[in-house]
Amino acid sequence: MRNEGYRCILYTDLCNPNSNAIYRRIGYCAVAEAIQYRFA
After folding, report:
1. Does a structural domain hold residue 6?
2. Are 21 and 28 within 8 A, CB to CB?
């Protein structure tokens, strides 16, 4: 996909070390953190 100009973006839960380890193993790397706020 990258060769065709597309970007892959993956949002993860930092509290889940198992899935984050898998994502790193397949080539993803952390580039930023985001915070989501909800107002009721």
Report:
1. yes
2. no
* Predicted TM-score (pTM) of this structure: 0.60
Output b/e per residue, 3-37; b: 16+ Cβ within 10 A: eeeeeeeeeeeeeeeeebeeeeeeeeeeeeeeeee
Residue 3 inside a domain? The answer is: yes
Sole residue written with tokens 């080539």: 27
Q: How confident is the model at residue 20 (pLDDT cuts 50, 70, 90)?
A: very high
Tell me how many domains the chain contains: 1
3: domain range?
A: 1-33
